[in-house]
């Protein structure tokens, strides 16, 4: 017997209309590519989202047609999220840090019909447009008069001219909530990038789960600055969660250096932010160098990579900001866990709380987790047993776009590729990537532990621990270190720094210093490049 | 094109299993009918919910069969919520404050197969059991040895004996998320009670929406004492929201007097509570009389009736507790709106904030609202125009059990029967019930406004404003007042108290004093009884 409740689908269009009705005057502030600040309201964002929907109708785009974006975090990108998905099309965010060849490959694979781009990326578009076979319309996210006449790009229009004359009302269509709404490619370690296709249902459920007090805790009293890019897993769902709650948004655009981010946070009274550790490193370094403090910042969500303990401590002790460790993946919309303390931790001292906060956190309701051994058998949640982490839930991938790679799941569980422990309180901690783990003499060494210890040294700006082959122990750890400007430290001093912090056999065999550690398009350290670079390195002893 | 996300239904069983895995040791404390405190964990609650599911399987109950409950807020009732619904049956909560005849009518209409009851209600069950034609199994919520041998009730068993020997594991079935999970009857103003049939989908979505920071703001750092009964609209969804977030629960059982509630709040370090104004009146009166303060309470959710401004002020100024005004209905699962301030209100002074907090609040995402005039035309959201309030959303009723009363909706919108304004910020304020409104000389007088002003007088314990027919003005207001014990006030003094607070023509024509104002089964004032009682009352002048 079915319940007798209204049969209303969960649709992305409802989010922007809800914001327009309940938070008409709440602000959305964007630092534009031009450098100036743009300021408007959710009511205006909703109006322009409807204009986008109408402009797409006018182009004759069919239901589920893909609209690509190559853009920073800003108000026009925000409008595309709702206008494209709300009208039944699929917003396909492309990472502009990819190579031009990868951009072409992805746009062709997705069969994008329209591609909208920030003017920053005009040079890329100029280079690649003839190879993007399905794109019929190129939309530059700018005013009509900002568009050069001589680009040579066929089908190029300025966004403001494209939507400008459309009426401001629109009847959002109602359809199956399982329909696709957004597409994001993830670059695997092997083969071509694979597309993750989110549905309206998964996106709205993820927005509910992500906004919960024990997840990202979004309310109409917050002001959020999403550093995490909208071209990467929908900025962790923040645009949807923001519309659901009506919080003020401050989009940083392309200026992610410490000074720009700090000044924007202060000027716009930001209370919460979200991003990867590398961005926070720039921010904290700038603030320390200049002796700056925050006036309004309360918390920052750190994901993408494990946050070094020293950074969590510095945020807390030097700047009064709580770090919320979060973990997820493109295949998970992306939220899996967030590290919020429980009632029983509130009475603990700061060190005990920090020990909890170092973990990636508890699952958001909607995500089920398990850890298994090499035979696929469940491991206990004791905070000790480490195994492959698998997840399940309504905002987790069931397959990739066009069936690439086949069914990624094992009995309905998606294997994350991470190795983790889970403690009795449900706090998960990543100990390694399956492929990153260092196997020495039959025992595992966590490269993350080694990196965190190295990062706690005052002279270390960034550290990567990689495995090198070893005739006796199978593999042994090598530590690759980027020093902070103006500091010095020796190989011996760094190795001595590990004494007493890990077992002797876990101390790296060697340290090498580099000018820079290569970062991927989403800010993660590219260890595969380091492994390639140091594959001939001879370990001492 | 559909998205490629896992097809996982939203089911109530997932809530209790999530709590068991992530909050195994979080506490659930219950004041039992016996008077003592019972204390256990979510892990134990989940185990016993599974035992309930197994016991129902053993009885041979079919999918969607109804299991009635007649019980206070306590751990066994909590287990029934999950064991009954999780295993695919429908938990049918019956209000024990109804007359025995109504209980019989409802149990027969619902075709309850099993009826579980607290020992408090054994006298009712003894009186009615032969008339409940479909109930085959009577389960007393007690230990085996607490069950009298001579009840004469055929099919009577003690709960602990019933579930005690069942294994602690259970494979919760997976089924369509739109399947029915809970049933609650609402007594309309005319005709028989009507059953609202919640689905798993509506219940889980409502739990997400209700736990949001701008709704009830539930986290694992909270301790909640739900005064609002589990027999009434699932205690506003708190049991589900608590399992979703792992917060500590303190169930007050039958002891809802001020002293009992206060002592339990203090002993268990409660941070949040929820209930109707009448209960808070008892609590505040007790605390004021004894000169008591709260140690841990932060906020209380008040719904069911509009909260008098004097009470909101007293909570805030005398006890440091924030009142969250909420509004909903049985037909809405029940949450429609919650009154949380926005960013722009934070800089306002206390009086300006109070003016916002008097409203019923903003819609929870998932609920759409509109106000219409007598012709059904949309009225503006300007905080002035008052009209019939209609709602729409995935946790709002589409029809009543067995089709009673036909389709309640108008073009998919459910008419709430409330008259309201909505301001430009989306804050809704109930001005009256459609049937309560007083129409004097073509103008409306808000009985709620009149009651709130009366309640602010130090000698008034409770006040009801009703319309009496009037030859010239059509209707005129009569104020019915229950005085606080040990206080005195005259008719003239009370009428003078209205001067300057409302327009002259809105001041009641007369005041009558009564020993008690009749309250309905859910604690609301029964104005229809007062109208009957005073229908012959002659207004002066």
List keywords for this structure.
541 residues, 25 strands, nine-stranded mixed beta sheet, globular, 16 helices, homodimer, seven-stranded mixed beta sheet, alpha/beta
Description:
Chain A has 541 residues and is of the alpha/beta class. The first copy, chain A, contains 16 helices and 25 strands. In chain A, strand 13, helix 12 and strand 14 (322-328) form a beta-alpha-beta unit. The longest helix of chain A has 18 residues, at 42-59. The mean pLDDT of chain A is 93.
Q: What multimeric state do the chains show? A: homodimer
Rounded to an integer, what's the Rg of chain A over CA atoms?
A: 23 Å
- Read across the widest sheet of chain A, the strand sequence of neighbours is 2-1-11-10-12-13-14-15-16
| Structural class by secondary-structure content of chain A | alpha/beta
For the biggest sheet of chain A, the summary is: 9 strands, mixed
Helix content of chain A: 25-40%
Q: Report the portion of residues of chain A in β strands.
A: 15-25%
Shape of chain A: globular
Name the chain pair whose interface involves the most residues.
Answer: A-B, 80 and 80 residues
Mean pLDDT of chain A, to the nearest integer, reads 93
Number of alpha- plus pi-helical segments of chain A: 16
Low-confidence stretches of chain A: none
* First-residue to last-residue Cα separation of chain A: 72 Å
For the secondary structure, the number of strands of chain A is: 25
Topology:
Two copies of one chain form a homodimer.
Chain A (H helix, E strand, L loop, with lengths): L11 H11 L4 E5 L5 E5 H18 L6 E5 L4 H12 L3 E4 L6 H11 L3 E4 L4 H7 L8 E4 L15 E3 H6 L15 E7 L7 E6 H12 L11 E4 L6 H4 L1 H8 L2 E4 L6 H10 L4 E4 L1 H14 L8 E4 L6 H11 L2 E7 L6 E4 L11 H8 L4 E2 L4 E5 L14 E6 L21 E9 L5 E6 L4 E3 L2 E3 L1 H9 L4 E11 L3 E10 L7 H7 L12 E5 L12 H7 L8
Parallel strand pairs in A: 1-11, 3-4, 3-5, 4-8, 5-6, 6-7, 10-11, 10-12, 12-13, 13-14, 24-25
Antiparallel strand pairs in A: 1-2, 8-9, 14-15, 15-16, 17-18, 18-19, 19-20, 21-22, 23-24
């Amino acid at each position: 017997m079915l319940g007798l409740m209204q049969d209303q689908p969960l649709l992305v269009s409802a989010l922007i209309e809800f914001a327009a009705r309940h938070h008409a005057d709440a602000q959305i502030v964007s630092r534009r590519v031009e450098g100036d600040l743009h300021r408007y309201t959710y009511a205006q964002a909703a109006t322009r989202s409807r204009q986008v929907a109408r402009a797409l109708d006018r182009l004759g785009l069919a239901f589920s047609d893909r609209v690509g974006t190559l853009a920073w975090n800003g108000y026009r990108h925000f409008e595309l999220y709702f206008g494209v998905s709300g009208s039944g099309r699929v917003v396909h965010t492309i990472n502009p840090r990819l190579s031009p060849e990868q951009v072409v490959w992805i746009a062709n694979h997705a069969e994008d019909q329209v591609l909208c781009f920030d003017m920053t990326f005009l040079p890329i578009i100029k280079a690649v447009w003839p190879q993007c076979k399905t794109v019929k319309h190129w939309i530059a996210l700018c005013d009509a008069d900002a568009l050069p006449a001589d680009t040579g790009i066929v089908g190029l229009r300025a966004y403001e001219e494209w939507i400008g004359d459309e009426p401001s009302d629109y009847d959002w269509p109602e359809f199956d909530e399982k329909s696709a709404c957004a597409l994001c490619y993830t670059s695997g370690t092997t083969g071509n990038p694979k597309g993750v296709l989110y549905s309206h249902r998964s996106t709205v459920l993820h927005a509910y789960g992500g906004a919960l007090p024990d997840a990202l805790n979004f309310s109409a009293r917050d002001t959020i600055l999403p550093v995490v890019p909208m071209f990467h897993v929908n900025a962790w769902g923040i645009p949807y969660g923001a519309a659901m709650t009506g919080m003020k948004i401050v989009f940083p655009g392309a200026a992610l250096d410490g000074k720009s981010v700090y000044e924007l946070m202060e000027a716009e009274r930001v209370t919460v932010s979200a991003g990867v550790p590398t961005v926070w490193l720039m921010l904290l370094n700038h603030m320390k160098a200049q002796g700056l403090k925050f006036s309004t910042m309360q918390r920052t969500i750190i994901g993408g990579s494990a946050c070094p303990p020293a950074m969590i401590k510095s945020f807390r002790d030097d700047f009064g900001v709580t770090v919320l460790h979060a973990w997820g993946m493109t295949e998970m919309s992306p939220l899996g866990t967030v590290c919020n303390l429980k009632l029983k931790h509130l009475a603990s001292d700061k060190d005990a709380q920090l020990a909890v906060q170092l973990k990636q956190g508890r699952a958001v309701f909607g995500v089920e987790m398990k850890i298994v051994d090499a035979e696929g058998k469940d491991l206990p949640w004791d905070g000790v047993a480490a195994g492959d982490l698998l997840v399940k839930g309504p905002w987790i991938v069931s397959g990739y776009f066009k069936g690439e790679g086949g069914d990624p799941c094992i009995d309905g569980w998606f294997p994350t590729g991470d190795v983790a422990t889970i403690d009795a309180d449900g706090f998960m901690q990543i100990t390694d990537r399956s492929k990153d783990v260092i196997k020495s003499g039959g025992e595992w060494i966590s490269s993350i532990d080694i990196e965190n210890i190295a990062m706690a040294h005052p002279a270390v700006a960034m550290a990567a621990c990689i495995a090198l082959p070893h005739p006796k122990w199978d593999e042994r750890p090598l530590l690759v270190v980027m020093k902070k400007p103006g500091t010095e430290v020796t190989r011996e001093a760094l190795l001595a720094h590990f004494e007493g912090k890990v077992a002797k056999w876990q101390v790296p065999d060697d340290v090498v210093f580099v000018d820079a550690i290569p970062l991927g398009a989403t800010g993660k350290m590219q260890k595969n490049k380091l492994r390639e670079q140091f594959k001939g390195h001879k370990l001492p002893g």
